[in-house]
Amino acid sequence: MARPPTNGKGSGMPLEIAQRVDAQGLSCPMPIVKTAQAVKLMVSGQLLEVLATDAGSSKDFAAWCKTTGNELVESSVEGGVYRFVLRRK
Amino acid sequence: MDEPINLVLFSGTDDRLQAAAVMTAGAAALGRRVNIFLQYWALDAFRKDRIAAGRGLSAEAGEAGAALVAAAAKAGQSPWHETLRQAKELGEVDIQACSLSMDVLKIEEDDLDPLVDGVEGVTAFYLNAGDGHIVFI
CA-to-CA distance for A47 and B128, rounded, in angstroms? Predict the structure, then answer.
């Protein structure tokens, strides 16, 4: 299991995930579409966790965050499952 | 990144429409505006009484390709019209029917699925396209 996200300041305090999207099994571009839909309903600073299995996910989520200005806090892959934590801008 | 993405859909086969729907949904998720112009067989595919009917694949798919596409659909891949519907909910996607194709194919505006926002000519399409890329599918 991946570690819970931390606040990056060395305190080891897990950050609070406000919203989750399970996009496992969905093909491109649905993981990004579901993510964009979820982020729309969140408020600035909140964290979203996304799980996906689409092989293009790592590059797609990095590109999506870069373009939209949301922050990609964590990006990892384990056993074919990609996990992302995003902070809404 | 203010210029829209402009897609001219000509082919009415399921695989090309699926590819176009994916391009549209991805752009909508990035906050890009998308203008879609429907010509000929793509326009025919947007008739409300036929939009959910399978329309076959490009010739190059062959039997093996058709089997793979069918397996993806069975595994839960959204059909192209559903992907477009989600793209429209998410962002700014404007779908216009080509007025010439409407004439040639004897299609009335009432015959079209509500996904289609209206009818326009090629001049209006170019005007709305601005300096954005135009992709023909």
Answer: 36
Chain B's closest residue to A26, CA to CA, is: B77
Domain count, chain A: 1
CA distances (Å), origin A85, targets B17, B45, B93, B130: 32, 39, 28, 36
Is residue A65 flagged as an active site residue? no
> Residue B65: which domain range?
5-136
CATH code of A21's domain: 3.30.110.40
Among partner residues A25, A29, A40, which is closest to B25 by beta-carbon distance? A29
Give the CATH number, domain containing residue B70.
3.40.1260.10
pLDDT at B82 over 70: yes
For the beta sheet containing A17-23, the strands, ordered from the edge strand earlier in sequence to the opposite edge, are A17-23, A47-52, A81-87, A71-78
| Angle of CA points B4, B8, B13, to nearest 5° | 135
Domain hosting residue A74, numbered range: 17-87
For the entire predicted model, the pTM comes to 0.85
The reply to whether A75 falls in a domain is yes
The predicted-structure confidence for A4-46, as pLDDT tens digits, reads as follows: 555 444 445 667 999 999 999 999 899 999 999 999 999 999 9
Q: Is B53 on the interface with A (CB under 8 A)?
A: no
Query: Which single residue is written with the structure tokens 């819970």?
Result: A4
Distance of alpha carbon B99 from the chain centroid? 16
Count of H helices and E strands in chain A?
2, 4
Would A21 be classed as within a structural domain? Answer: yes
- With CA atoms as reference, the chain A residue closest to B28 would be A33
Number of structural domains, chain B? 1
